[in-house]
Amino acid sequence: MHPARNFVALALLAAPALAQGFSYPNFSSTAGLVLNGNALATGGVLRVTPAAASQRGSVWYSQPLAVAGGFTLDMTFQFTSQASSGADGLAILFQNDPRGTAALGSATAGSCIGYADNPAQPAGLGIVNSLALEIDTYDAGSPFFDGTGADFSWHTNGTGQNDARESYSIGWATPAVDFTDGLVHSVRIVYVPGSLSVSYDGAPLFVTPYSFASGGTWIGGASVGGLNLINGSSLYVGVTSATGGAWEHNDVLSWSFTPTPTAPTTYCTPGTSTNGCLATMSANANPNLALSTPCTISVTSVEGQKSGVLFYGLEALIQPWSSTSTSFLCVKLPTQRSLSQFSGGTIGACNGIFTLDWNAFQTTTPGALGQPWIAGRRAQVQAWYRDPPASKSTNLSNALTLTYLP
Fold first, then answer.
1. Residue 170 near residue 156 (C-beta atoms within 8 A)
2. Do 381 and 296 share a structural domain?
3. CA 303, 308, 309, 311: dihedral to nearest 10 degrees?
4. What are the angstrom distances between the C-alpha of 321 and each of 89, 252, 276, 306, 330?
5. Pair 340, 331: CB distance under 8 Å
6. CB under 8 Å to 149, separation ≥6 — which residues?
7. Domain limits at 277?
8. What is d(CA 156, CA 336) in angstroms, rounded to the nearest whole number?
């Protein structure tokens, strides 16, 4: 077997062992998902409700996911084929309802968006012990009193039955660009214990104080409790929808969920230098948006007395550096490089070191790749150094993932 092939296998095995998550770049397959009601997959799209009257649907990832320590959820969505101005949108749900992946809200009101009960015709169908982010496309008036009919709104009733009336909202915002325009839009949710950050089409939209453990505050000022988590850490994650006398295709085009790592993670394998050195990356902490927590990247076991640079990109990659090299390029273009530095140490020994003060680099390099950073965005970092006898006269370290915190 070609030596590069062996190292590809090692590189894959060395990928970070993260807590369980999922990624659906499209829905050509719905493996791992549970679809209820009128939800269906069609043409690579997850149609939570089709453009017809009185529809409701829910889609759940089949296993509970760790939420207590933080996570990032990304989704692209689209509302088309509107009738009577279109209705009623989508809701992203986090729940520990006794029905589990069968949970689905009222069948008698589209404004319940598939997760709540109809207060005018109560049937006990609201999803209990849940938190919902409405992507609401219809102003239903009384008794719901939605914000604008094109807004994001967090709803919870603690461990009780969730409710789509706006008095159960703990925070909401209307984006400047209307998501009912028939175009594809994106939403990102970043949770760190104590806050929920929502970004829309790549830009921060609003932040809501909330903890799964202790709850939050309804917009009327009263406190609402948190949720009972599965094994103290996890919930079912899903999306719901409904229509009534007005309707539209309520579609999800892509969807991913990634628990926040508590520390930077490494992936890929380092190349073996001429003198048998394995340059290895680490960092003391993930950066935050305020750059208030020190974030220092270290590369140890570098060949002594070598020049090199650290570079980063926004996407990971595992690609042989050359057909005869043991190194892998682990960062996808485009990339941003730091200033060249010297490893120090002893010639022929593996005691050289590179370091980078991430916060200082970001502060002194305006316009650097990734700026302005948003919570949940990742930087993939790697080190390159001179090694004249090696293939391409260079070698590479393993790679490091930094995840921005709010």
1. yes
2. yes
3. -60
4. 47, 37, 17, 19, 9
5. no
6. 136, 137, 138, 139
7. 3-16+262-403
8. 42
Residue 304: which of 324, 279, 338 has the closest Cα? 279
Closest listed residue to residue 325, CA positions, set 72, 61, 11:
11
Task: Name residues whose C-beta falls within 8 Å of residue 301's C-beta, 6 or more positions apart in sequence.
Answer: 270, 277, 278, 279, 280, 350, 351, 352
pLDDT tens column, 28-43: 999 999 999 999 999 9
- 309-336 pLDDT tens trace: 999 999 999 999 999 999 999 999 999 9
Provide the β-strand partners of residue 93.
Answer: 132, 238
Q: Residue 28: is it exposed, middle or buried by C-beta count within 10 angstroms (0-12/13-18/19+)? A: exposed
Count of domains in the chain?
2
In b/e form, how buried is each residue of 354-393, taking b as 16+ CB within 10 angstroms? bebebbebbeeeeeeebeebbbbbbbbbbbbbebeebbee
Per-residue pLDDT, 374: 84
CA distances in angstroms from 202 to 186, 191, 294, 375, listed in the order given: 7, 16, 26, 11
For residues 128 and 116, what is the distance between their CA atoms, to the nearest angstrom? 9
Render pLDDT for 63-94 as a digit per residue (tens, 0 to 9): 999 999 899 999 999 999 999 888 899 999 99
In this prediction the pTM is 0.71
Point out the domain boundary residue: 228, 259, 290: 259
How many Å apart are CA 404 and CA 286, to the nearest integer? Answer: 6
Calculate Rg over the CA atoms of the chain.
24
Amino acid letter, 101: T
Q: Using the structure block, give the residue that is written with the tokens 């209705």.
A: 87
